[in-house]
């Protein structure tokens, strides 16, 4: 199964709750993450692994991304996770507490039998954020960075506010741009049932360059999807730019005039992504 090409919304569901895992399929999220780490009490992790092995191959994900959050590399729980996950029914692993390139190199070797499996790397400590580029360059499996604001603020003493998180968020987005992967923002924690606050926080993340956001509650899903879906105005402009460069391609020009402004040809891939995302979003709601 080929996963959906976009991760606007990523829902984390604890794997020791099989009823929630099955119920999550009804939600309009782009990426499903079944959790074996912090969301599962340590005494119930073997139970969670058993549920995961049984349910993942049978659930209908509708072509959307299938992810498992494992425990941190270097722990006994991580090795147990890798032995229990039905890798053939999984598109990616969400890897927590990544601080070094060596952790990803170890995973690369451990996953040699699953060459197509992607890694979504969690940067949730000051050391992890500071090493973001080296971590991203360590493995071709890296499909996204995910910013974990909770542990980051616990270690730095910062508040969970847009101002306090600006540097970390910007650093992660810059590293994602350099590596060529997605950047997934931390969940909105100030009100799980606050769609307006969630939407505003998601719009700020999108402005910085994030491509999606983690959600913890069904009430957050629509707010996040709307924030990361191009508006009709943005989609129409993207189409005009792509069309303009198609029209001047034969002349070998590197710029075109769109809406009275000069635009450069290197903008075309970004505009094509806008069009692709708009088409994807329309397909998910039709």
TrEMBL record:
One of the GO biological process terms: oxaloacetate metabolic process
Needed co-factor(s): Mg(2+)
Entry keyword Metal-binding: yes
UniProt-annotated binding residues for substrate: 69, 124
A Pfam family hit: HpcH_HpaI
Annotated protein name in UniProt: Citrate lyase beta subunit
InterPro entries in the cross-refs: Aldolase/citrate-lyase_domain, Citrate_lyase_beta/mcl1/mcl2, Pyrv/PenolPyrv_kinase-like_dom, Pyrv_kinase-like_dom_sf
Residue positions binding Mg(2+): 124, 151
Keywords assigned by UniProt, alphabetized: Lyase, Magnesium, Metal-binding
Residue span(s) of domain HpcH/HpaI aldolase/citrate lyase: 8-218
Top-level taxon: Bacteria
Coiled coil: none
GO molecular function terms attached to this record: lyase activity; magnesium ion binding
Protein species of origin: Caballeronia insecticola
SUPFAM superfamilies: Phosphoenolpyruvate/pyruvate domain
């Amino acid at each position: 199964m080929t996963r959906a090409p976009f991760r606007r919304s990523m829902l984390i569901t604890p794997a020791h709750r099989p009823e929630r895992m099955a119920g999550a399929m009804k939600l309009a999220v782009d990426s499903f993450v079944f959790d074996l780490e912090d969301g599962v009490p340590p005494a119930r992790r073997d139970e969670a692994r058993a549920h995961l092995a049984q349910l993942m191959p049978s659930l209908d994900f509708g072509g959307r991304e299938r992810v498992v959050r494992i425990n941190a590399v270097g722990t006994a729980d991580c090795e147990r996770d890798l032995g229990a996950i039905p890798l053939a029914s999984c598109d990616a692993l969400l890897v927590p507490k990544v601080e070094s390139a060596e952790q990803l190199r170890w995973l690369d070797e451990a996953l040699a039998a699953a060459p197509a499996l992607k890694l979504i790397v969690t940067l949730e400590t000051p050391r992890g954020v500071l090493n973001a580029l080296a971590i991203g360059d360590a493995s071709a499996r890296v499909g996204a960075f995910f910013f974990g604001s909770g542990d980051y603020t616990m270690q730095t003493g910062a508040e969970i506010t847009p101002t306090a998180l600006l540097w970390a968020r910007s650093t992660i987005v810059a590293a994602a741009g350099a590596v060529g992967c997605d950047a997934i923002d931390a969940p909105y924690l100030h009100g799980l049932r606050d769609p307006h606050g969630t939407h505003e926080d998601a719009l700020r993340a999108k402005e910085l360059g994030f491509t999606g956001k983690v959600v913890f509650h069904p009430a957050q899903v629509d707010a996040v999807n709307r924030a990361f879906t191009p508006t009709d105005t943005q989609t129409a402009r993207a189409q005009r730019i792509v069309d303009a460069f198609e029209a001047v391609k034969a002349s070998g020009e590197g710029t075109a005039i769109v809406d009275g402004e000069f635009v450069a040809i290197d903008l075309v891939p970004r505009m094509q992504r806008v069009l692709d995302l708009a088409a994807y979003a329309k397909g998910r709601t039709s």
